[in-house]
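ERR on first pass: missing label on line 2. Operator R.T. fixed the label and resubmitted. Corrected input:
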Amino acid sequence: MITVLCGGVGAARMLDALRLVVVPGEITGIVNTGDDLVMHGLRICPDLDTITYTLAGLNNDETGWGLQGETWRVMAELEALRGESWFKLGDRDLATHLYRTTRLAQGASLVEVTAELCERLGVDVRLLPATNDPIATTFDTVDHGRLSFQEYFVRHHHDVVVRAVSIEGAASAHPAPGVVEAIESAERIVISPSNPLISVAPILAVPGVRDALAARRRDVVAVSPLIGGRALKGPADRLLIELGHEPTPGGIAALYREVAAVLVIDTADAELAAGVIEQGLECRVTGTLMSDPAQAAGLAQVVLDG
Amino acid sequence: MITVLCGGVGAARMLDALRLVVVPGEITGIVNTGDDLVMHGLRICPDLDTITYTLAGLNNDETGWGLQGETWRVMAELEALRGESWFKLGDRDLATHLYRTTRLAQGASLVEVTAELCERLGVDVRLLPATNDPIATTFDTVDHGRLSFQEYFVRHHHDVVVRAVSIEGAASAHPAPGVVEAIESAERIVISPSNPLISVAPILAVPGVRDALAARRRDVVAVSPLIGGRALKGPADRLLIELGHEPTPGGIAALYREVAAVLVIDTADAELAAGVIEQGLECRVTGTLMSDPAQAAGLAQVVLDG
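pass 2 clean. output:
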């Protein structure tokens, strides 16, 4: 059994890669919910949706986000009404949010709704939200005050100066049923190449998860989200600097030193391996881009081997 | 100034007819909200929407409900997810519900949101929900227990035996700002040819509205929703019988005797005018079908003349 801590796009690729070398039914993804939002009354879980759509083979490879064959009728009409339309919701995607919102209102837990959506869409990996409880990754910014995750990420295109990140609600949240067990019982635990500060941190902030991971540190392999000091997607590099961390393999290793024994870094960063070892982690060097199935499978195998 | 108490389709036609003989800006519609529902987290106001769409010229004349050029992408996907899809929401219609839900969550009142939607869609009649407070028309049925309005009307196609109707929340609701004033200041007050028991009754059940109307009784004209003992649309005839009323002009007059001085009935029912007069109302006989503009304008003029 393999358990993977997951943000959005990077995690979706990591899970997709692991499916190439492990029976999908043996993979559990524990997914960040700190980006979740209620918009227009609808409960939206961007990371869960990105992963679900990707594993279902429904992701739009051309745009890099959203669904294949998506249409935008509702958004176009909402814009005509001069409604709040900065967070784009495709017609097909909306059905997911309608489904989830109704099931939650009926009393189903987010774990149950996630399992239902995976079953409906034919996802063969088990996905668990980190928690059923509401948590919210929140940004204290210099020019715009406090921003929710999607205000920061989508509305402001993460082009703002961040002073601090906090995970609202985390202190009183509980790990979703199965989360701690999935960490305790896995042969290998993987931290995806997701943003450590805003995608992985909210998972670790749920009481009990960090401790469970630390107890399995010897079997935890993290994959760096940086290549040549830059994040492939998103603001990881900029945020690391603004919040006082190094945008290097060593900086990532410092963040994970208590919970991971190995950091996988890209071949482009091979010369920086010493920074990882300095933090007390072993370092593996391989292609981390997952740009083709062969490279993806190669990374998955390195991660599995630990 | 003309004030019109409104349900859905019949009221939309009545308002549309009145526009033919009165300056639209002098017409106020007070609209039933007892059919409102929260579905998939979205606040839906079927009567307000039917009227808004009709007055905006966006209603679908072919189907008799919904919007012109509507598409059903979200519903099709929701069905594919095996989600709750018995209440059909078109893509275009959904934008209205997203808009309303967001504005209400931002603290706008239903009156404000309704005014915004009317402005956006170019509706020239003033529409007021009867109340900003939540009220819910609820059915006590023989075979299905308690049903919400839309469960009764849409899910069960109003094909169930009803023991009683109650307007939940009405006792503690307040008339929306402008509602009582619109009744007090109008030259003519019209009760639309809507279902008296489930479309007009929820408006009258809001404390203060019935009294305001009774105080203006001399200037209140009601239009019967029945032609030849049958409702043009919906379950008015059946409900009248099940709840112990007569499905006749006299039966309608009995329901409105305290709040209206005149009942307009269709020429097909001319021989039943005596039943209206027996209840202490005057009776006007004219074509009430509003099937063409000439007939619609004719009815509007009869209503205006009182």
